[in-house]
Amino acid sequence: MKNWGLGLILSCVLSTAAIAEEDKKNSGPIADPQVFVTDHQGRFNGQNIKYTVTAGETYLHDEKDQPIASVWSISYVADVKGDRSNRPITFVFNGGPGSASLWLHMGVFGPKRIDLPSDAMDDGAPPYNIINNDQSPIDVTDLVFIDPVGTGYSRPLGDTDGKKFWGVDQDAASIAEFVRLWLTKNKRWNSARYIAGESYGTTRAAALTDKLQDGFNGISVNGVMLISAILDFQTARFQTGNPIPYIGFLPTYAATHWYHNLSDAGDISLEDHVAEARRFAIEDYAPALLKGDRLASSDKATIRAKLASLTGLSEDYLDDTNLRINIARFAKEFGRNDGYTVGRFDSRFRGQDFDNAGERYDDDPSGYAIAGGYTSAINHYMTTELGVDITREYKVLDFTPGRNWDWSQNGSGSGFGNVNVAPMLGEAQRENSDLRVLLASGYYDLATPFFAAENTLATNGFIKDRTVKTFYEAGHMMYLHHPSLAQLSKDIRDFILAGQK
Fold first, then answer.
1. What is the Cα–Cα distance from 276 to 338, expressed in whole angstroms?
2. Can you tell me whether residue 397 is helix, strand or coil?
């Protein structure tokens, strides 16, 4: 399970023969969509809820009405009497691109969840603890978990190439079409609509909102939940001449130092340490980076000393890096003297490499520490409780979409570093007076750091009084940490309830 990297674009080698074999599987007559319906009940946030689960395929069609893709989804619809218009719907997905929606499904939103260690420890081997999620927001919203084409059980059909759906614009268009079909088939056009995405799923959420609300055929959205957000990819593009990521990542480096080295001392709180890192990043560090080789030696020494105190890195190392801390290097360098690496998805996690001499870690300990549990949980849940009888592999995190992703927007730009969907969401807020945004971030997230997301929202036209920001003492998947799960669940429910008319 190598290269648990940015969690945004992932790469692997897929042979030509393997691609040809997959295309061969998709050719031939197209069978009818498979759908599995079951009835359930449970107690959520103090309320007894009966609900119907529909796990199945929705076919997307081309202009000739021929099926071109199957989108797998799992819908939870509460049994209510009368008009369902007062019952909101939340469409949920993860990111990758290339990830199925199991993480948010089995981690925070769904009526069942996997209960993994809260203290950043490895999940080990099965059996895992799959429990009732009494904090699920199903008491206040119906839920629809979507697996984009190429993830989960979703796939292109017939002779259609998966690349037709793999891109910033193409992906958003396919999910928008799924949403339209779901609303029509379920007669829910007058229900409040929410979108929740994690990681690249937040990129998808912004692009999807733009697609949905575009023009006179638009589908208005009530709220967008950005969980571990990345909207402007310049904030994660570590390259010569781009100071933006060094600024945005700094407070998360500081939080990591506090967690591993300062928390036991009790001299300063996490919030205070992070607040100082935020201030320093904007007021002192950013101007220093912009000055480049024009920075005076005395000023460089002052910046270097402050960086060392905030991050725990040595001044010698910071001098060698010219005051610029690359995330891939940080994860290895931070605990090098003590023989451990830190996780990128969650820097609370510690890993042990084969040796301590390398520039980067062998693998992300916050990735391999949880993957086995979540993969087992979703497959166990679908086959035993939802009655899903499909034998092909459920693709939890497939590298093929990511390595074939079209990063251009509206036909312009190339490379993920040029993508910025934040203006789309800012414009959507300005054109829809009811659209609210929730930004949920973990302090220890080194994949999509909280300060980078804050900076993005501050500079792309968002409406401040309709934008809520929340923070948690955990990482990218903040719901792994039990206290953060409880708070995130409350924040999600509060966000939805606040939007009811």
1. 26
2. strand
Are 159 and 57 spatial neighbours (Cβ–Cβ below 8 Å)? no
**Predicted pLDDT of residue 82:** 82
Query: For 349-421, where are the alpha helices, taking DSSP H only?
Result: 365-368, 371-384, 399-403
φ/ψ bin of 387: left (φ > 0), alpha (ψ from -120 to 50), beta (otherwise): left
pLDDT confidence of residue 412: 64
Which pLDDT score is estimated for 470?
98
User: Which are the contacts of 408, defined by CB distance < 8 A and separation ≥ 6?
Assistant: 167, 168, 169, 414
Task: Say if residue 385 is exposed, middle or buried (CB neighbours under 10 Å; 0-12, 13-18, 19+).
Answer: middle
Average pLDDT, the chain: 93
What are the pLDDT digits (tens) for 336-363? 999 999 999 999 999 999 999 999 999 9
Q: Which residues are paired to 235 by β-bridges?
A: none
Secondary-structure percent of the chain, ordered helix, strand, coil, rounded to 5: 40, 20, 40
* 3-state per-residue secondary structure call for 21-84: HHHHHHCCCCCCCCEEEEEEEEEECCEEEEEEEEEEEEEEECCCCCEEEEEEEEEEEECCCCCH
d(CA 61, CA 174): 10
Whole-number Å distance between alpha carbons of 358 and 335: 12
Task: Give me the mean pLDDT over the 139-158 stretch.
Answer: 98
Residue 59, strand partner residues: 70
> Global pTM?
0.93
User: How confident is the model at residue 85, as a pLDDT?
Assistant: 86
Tell me: the pLDDT tens digits for 294-308? 999 999 999 999 999
Angle at the Cα of 194 from the Cα atoms of 228 and 216, rounded to 5 degrees: 120
> 16-234+370-498 is classed in which CATH architecture?
3-Layer(aba) Sandwich (3.40)
Please name the residues in contact with 378: beta carbons below 8 A apart, sequence gap of 6 or more.
Answer: 100, 102, 105, 106, 394, 396
Alpha helix stretches (DSSP H) within 224-345: 244-257, 270-280, 286-291, 297-311, 315-320, 327-333
